[in-house]
Amino acid sequence: MQVQLTTNILKANDAIAALNRKIFNEKNIFVINIISSPGAGKTTLLEKVLPKLPPDIKPAVIEGDLTTTKDAERIEKTGVFALQINTLGGCHLDANMISQVLEKIPLDEINLLVIENVGNLVCPAGFDLGEDMKMVVLSVTEGNDKPLKYPVIFREAAVSVLNKIDLLNYVDFDLKQYEDDLQAINPNQQRFYVSARTEEGLEPLIMFIAEKVRSKRGGA
Amino acid sequence: MHETALMESVLVILRESAKANGIQKVTKVKLKVGELTNALPEALELAFEAAKGDLLAQDAILEIEPVKAQILCRNCQKISTIDWLNYYCSHCLSSNVKIIAGDELLIDYYEGE
């Protein structure tokens, strides 16, 4: 007996993501899903960006890692609420993991939720968490070839952040090639160039995030 | 290794459908996997082998049909087949395009008894 299904394999994840998105929309919370390889500087970027957000932006963070609570502890030191999810080997966060921790997050006191995904440029790209926007972070030490090697995430991400630009003089990162490749893969992507360490270039990114939060709150 | 997670989702869907259709053992599963999905056929095969047991028969077959990526141009309304890296209309070179194939992960059908 043959049974025709034509069913989306990710339908269970997508259904939960849609529920998450409904909750975020009802509460006017703008949600960013940050994706990068390990060591690109996602957590450092958040440590620097979150305290500089304008006072009307009220953030909270979900940290995804295989193990340890190191990243959530780092975020908490900035005074921002942070919750750690340990995937215990899982290479990405899925919508159900987010759904299960939502009740522990003070959703009525925030308007920005940043989800720092597990460090990985491949798997997290396929799993919708209910976010408004994916942000991919790449550091110059990883090389300019990454958009071509991992095109799915660079296409999915509405925003890219190139980090560690203070090291550009010390590495063979071809900025022109990087921009050309991104233009081919995702011509509409908003691009930022920063050094989280020296704080160069952070201001435009901070203003961009603040505007996104405000427009969701105002225009929803 | 998100192919393992994908195969778990396949099994959840199959289990539900098999129950509704009175099927005890699944003997063949046919998937359609878009080339833009990052899902590797070899890794899906491995996850399928590992999942054999209560529902999947020991000699069950996994067939994977790869799906080429296609875009529809919003500018000239023509369809292009694209490679991974160039999301441009091959007719008018516009980048105002919509992906219409190649990002799907579907269970096409399954067979069982």
SSE diagram, text form:
The complex is a heterodimer of chains A (220) and B (113).
Chain A: E1 2-8, H1 11-26, E2 30-36, H2 42-49, E3 59-65, H3 70-76, E4 81-86, H4 95-101, E5 112-116, E6 133-139, H5 146-149, H6 151-156, E7 159-163, H7 175-185, E8 190-193, H8 202-219
Parallel strand pairs in A: 2-5, 2-6, 3-4, 3-5, 6-7, 7-8
Helix pairs in contact in A: 1-4
Chain B: H1 2-20, E1 26-34, H2 41-51, E2 56-67, E3 70-73, E4 79-81, E5 97-101, E6 105-112
Parallel strand pairs in B: 1-2
Antiparallel strand pairs in B: 1-6, 3-4, 3-5
At a glance:
The complex is a heterodimer of chains A (220) and B (113). With 220 residues, chain A is an alpha/beta fold. Chain A has helices at residues 11-26, 42-49, 70-76, 95-101, 146-149, 151-156, 175-185, 202-219; strands at 2-8, 30-36, 59-65, 81-86, 112-116, 133-139, 159-163, 190-193.
Greatest contact pair? A-B, 32 and 32 residues
CATH class of chain A: Alpha Beta
CATH superfamily of chain A: P-loop containing nucleotide triphosphate hydrolases
Number of helices of chain A: 8
